[in-house]
TrEMBL record:
Protein name as annotated: Phosphodiester glycosidase family protein
Residues in coiled coil: none
Native species: Myroides pelagicus
InterPro entries attached to this UniProt entry: NAGPA
GO MF annotation terms: hydrolase activity, acting on glycosyl bonds
The entry's keywords: Glycosidase, Hydrolase, Signal
Classification lineage: Bacteria, Pseudomonadati, Bacteroidota, Flavobacteriia, Flavobacteriales
Signal peptide residues on this chain, from the entry's feature table: 1-23
Residue stretches making up the Phosphodiester glycosidase domain: 124-303
Length: 306
């Protein structure tokens, strides 16, 4: 009797399933159709993008382009990324480090205020991103730091693997942190990063798979600097990336080398729109308190010589 009841139950379930699933059932067909060259690189050279929602680019000044990309990842998560592509072959375009109130004192200040303090007669402030990890009580950066040719900090911890440097000939590069002490006297600016993401155009193996908002910086073989922010901690807006996906992103868009910088609520991407009006506009959505800028220790600022 139990066998008959079991067979009848099995038949009933099979009929229910067959009634609910037919050949005419439709499934969502995700299509990734990029609209810009950077979008094409990301879609064609990575396994990150399931569907493109926004793919736009605009120029702030010759040699400085902004790319904004919103997509559904293949993990099923919303993503919004913001990217500077800076052509360092342009002699009037470069980057500098920033500090709160443009003073050689460690403290903390939102990036747009650091940018305003940097406005001067020598160059325009085009935009920028946040920099190194730091002590959130004192504002002391976790790694090495050089500002206006002065070495303000030459120590670092094991988690600092590399640094962004601008030497006194205005050459910009990413280097291993171990090289800092022998090169520090030749530097005009230096800001430490965290883990390497890309080296020699190959992804670096990662062991930390935590997902957060991120800031990353890369260099290309044709002398472009890439400053990237991905928003996170907001499920419907953007979820953030782990190091492996961040590395895949940076490699896909052409980075030969790339470093992770301070992320989480520190990740900030701002521009100076309107013919350098100095009314700085935050383009991303920082994760603190629904979009509030966090006071950070330092940043990387894009400049254009006047």
């Amino acid at each position: 009797m139990k066998t008959i009841k079991f067979l009848l139950f099995t038949l009933f379930i099979s009929l229910q399933v067959s009634c609910q699933t037919t050949a005419e059932d439709s499934f969502t067909d995700y299509k990734s159709n990029p609209q810009t060259p950077k979008g094409e690189l990301l879609v064609n050279n990575s396994n990150l993008v399931a569907q493109v929602f926004k793919d736009s680019t605009y120029s702030l000044t010759p040699g400085v382009e902004v790319h904004e990309f919103a997509f559904l990842s293949k993990k099923g998560l919303a993503m919004k990324t913001f990217l500077y592509d800076i052509d360092l072959n342009k002699p009037d375009v470069s980057v500098v480090a920033s500090m709160p109130d443009n003073k050689m004192e460690f403290s903390m200040q939102p990036m747009t205020q650091q940018a305003k303090a940097l406005v001067n007669d020598r160059f325009e402030v085009v935009g920028g991103v946040n920099g190194d990890f730091y002590d959130m009580t004192t504002g002391v950066p976790r790694g090495v730091f050089v500002f206006n040719g002065m070495v303000l900090k030459d120590s670092y911890i094991d988690r600092n693997k590399g640094y962004l440097a601008v030497d006194k000939f205005n050459k910009v590069y990413l280097k291993d942190i171990e090289l800092f002490k022998q090169e520090k006297q030749s530097l005009q600016y230096a800001v430490s990063g965290g883990v390497w993401l890309v080296k020699d155009s190959e992804k670096v193996l990662q062991t930390d798979n935590a997902v957060h908002p991120r800031t990353a910086i890369g260099t290309t073989k044709d002398n472009h600097l890439l400053l990237m922010v991905v928003d996170g901690r907001n499920y419907t807006w953007s979820n953030g990336m782990d190091y492996d996906d961040l590395a895949e992103f940076m490699k896909a868009i052409g980075a030969d080398r790339a470093l992770n910088f301070d992320g989480g609520g520190s990740s900030t991407f701002f521009i100076n729109p309107g013919s350098f009006s100095n009314n700085f506009d935050i383009r991303n959505l920082p994760s603190d308190n629904g979009g509030d800028q966090r006071a950070v220790a330092n940043g990387i600022i894009i400049t254009k010589a006047k």
